[in-house]
Amino acid sequence: MRNLWIFLNRYNAFFFLIIFFVAGIILTVRNNAYQRSVTLNSTNGLVGAAYEHLNVVKRYLNLGMVNDSLAKENALLKTEILALRSIDSAKDVTVKDTLRNVQYTYLPAKVIKNSFTLRNNIITINKGRLDGIEPDMAVISPQQGVIGLVRDVSDHLATIRSLLHKDTRISVAIKKNNALGSLIWGDRNFDIRKAFVTDIPNHVKMSVGDTIVTSGAGEFPIGVPVGRVRKTNVSTGDNFLAAEITLFNDFSNLQYVYVIKNKYAAEQKALELNSKNDE
Amino acid sequence: MNSRVVISNIVRWVLLFFVQVFLLRNIGFYNLSAPFIYVLFVLALPFGIPNLLLYILAFGTGIVMDAFYDTLGVHATACAVLAFVRISFISVTVNRDGFDEPEPSLSGMGFKWFVLYSLLCIFFHHLVVFFLEAFRLNEIGYTLVRCLLSCIFTLFLVLLAQFIFYKRKSR
Fold it and tell me: Which residue of A15, A77, B89, B146 sits 20 to 30 Å from the alpha carbon of A176, by its own alpha carbon?
């Protein structure tokens, strides 16, 4: 006991410090509204964060299954929507070939190998010829935006020439006035959220914020949203206007894509080839 | 002798209190530097003071400052830390038995000793004040800058006060 007392006495400065320091902190926390709210919040935040992390792990375990079923369901719904939208009322009712005149069908596919850092990017998906995929089919993103065109097909796999490729040109239009242009990624552009629309006729009025959609010419169905104009009148050196746009889709986290099957693709191609030969 | 020390300390306390609360409280450089000259009172208490009394005086001074700054507890805590730094520094550097000087001062202890002594005390005091005031670590850079700039300001004022009031006495 005496030793304890001597010990306490020798280091009394330190023990006084502890006593007064704690007293000061208690005063601070009890009497100042800001400090009080912070301490209460951080303890609450801690508990909340722990629960949240637990939940994330749980959800992650089921993620693959959920994704598969969602993609399938989405494809079904989108096909249905297109079917409803594109019923051609002018068509003769005696046509027997289809129940409903569905021009486009969506095929969901999983991205096996994504690429977005190169100059020419190729994406690989897990559906192939046996699933009905042919070269030059259009590929769009499940959320919004275009991905590219099918390039090569094997029995079970296919590669997609992404929009982020120097050879990819997609016909697009400005939504508000249907003025045509072509969508390219652009030379010396390494920003995957940015692309250019070129070949817009000179008289067309456009402004920042205009929505760009696909035009319907080519493989893509009409009206797929592509992006939003960020900068107009980018100088190109020719007689056409160009615009810099922000893409709606993010190529860096691509997991699922939809390949679009155009029932009349072969017919259209043959027809257009014919017309060209006649010129 | 003893009563003279008590009275001189009381006068010093009142003077510093008025300067701090009515003048320096309204001075600041871009929200970055706020001087706390009142720490000079704790710095200049006599060497022979018992630890408990030192703590009580420092804590009390801090509470009074808190009352005027509307931050109950912040300055009190900082003053407790200040008292501890003061005791540690004096016990390391000054011979315990034979104090030549009655109290720490610029003229009595020499420029080098006094600057080091006040700089250390002021730094730890300000560190506690600013961190308790901010009460979060994600703006640590800003808090540290404020703390250091305020340290320099306070040290400058403390030295100024020492030069004005104590130089003549040593001759």
Answer: A77
